Target: Glucose-1-phosphate adenylyltransferase
Amino acid sequence: MQNQTLTFLLAGGVGSRLHPLTSSRSKPSVPFGGKYRIIDFTLANCLHSGLRRILVLTQYKSHSLNKHLRDGWSIFNPELGEYITPVPAQMNSGEHWYQGTADAIFQNLNLLERSNAEYTLILSGDHIYRMDYAAMLSAHQEQGADVTIACMEVPVEEAKAFGVVVTNADLKIIAFEEKPGQPTPLPENPEKALVSMGLYVFSTKLLSRALVEDQHNDASSHDFGKDILPRLVQHHKVQAYKFGGARGRVTPDRYWRDVGTLDAYYQANMDLLKPFPPLNLYQRDWPIRTYQPQSPPARTINGNSGAESVFVNSILAGGVVISGGSVRHSILFQDIFIDENAIIEKSILFGGVHVGTGARLQNCIIDQNVSIPPGEQIGYDLVKDRNRFTVSEKGIVVVPKDFVFVS
Model:
């Protein structure tokens, strides 16, 4: 069934709530977990699900993402009809960029129709999770559905931020509520609601008709959740597919995170440091692929004065050197140098960061190629930090890429 499926991966989001991490890159290309990019999780799901025709729709500041796709994901054989192809916004229909999730697919309708695919899978490139899409495609076919929506249960209060689905006993969706003020709870559990994950399987012919009809609706915002799905629910068989079940090859850890804010992004990274991480990166038959630079192994050495390095419950990528410093409960990307008596706690450091002698960092995200001066302190005085950097609602200090400290 996978060879009858065309996959669209939406990766053009601005990611404004992740600023300044998205000041020079799109949200899907933001580094994550010490070695990955956010988009790697969705692409790895495609790879392990046997999907080999993938169009990545890019738009906002896409150079970093395009480079990552070229360097890390040029793994399929075009001569066999396999590809992961970035498709920039080209104004194929009208003189405007993508105006919504449905408009992004509509503007590439020629690619959809040319594919002759029986099924279309629509994914987002900015979530952290593992999922076997092949199992969802099989359920779509077995149930004779026109549309299948991946869904998960969340507390009713959190459901206000999602599209809420209401189903009958057979998981046929009978109502779709986009970000409702009063979400409809599950009949068997009034504290939970069933929400859309923004992940859809369409029968391709129906999708094409729905997109064309939507474009002729002047009142539409051209969004799947707001416009297309609520209409299709009324006249077509739209099924819910519950995320995290036993069906499929991937271990059902039921972990899914929208890392759309600085605090959500920070917490999802810190989740990887828990004694039993809720997201299993170590399932040997479901590795998360990425581009890995040719860095030497990470190591710890004593400082010039003989100070011993300390490394506690942290993730280190290749090329990290801890020279008499202390790293605790932190995530360090490639080619980082931690100098003598520096202290790093509960922080995320992107590639190429140098932390000077005696500097202290806590509750920080340091973007690429920043040199922290000796003795500098970040994360200890939030009033001072707010005058220099971005500070999240929960007090995470973000130092932007290439920031230069003025002495």
Summary: The longest helix spans residues 204-215. The mean pLDDT is 93. DSSP finds nine helices and 29 strands in the chain.
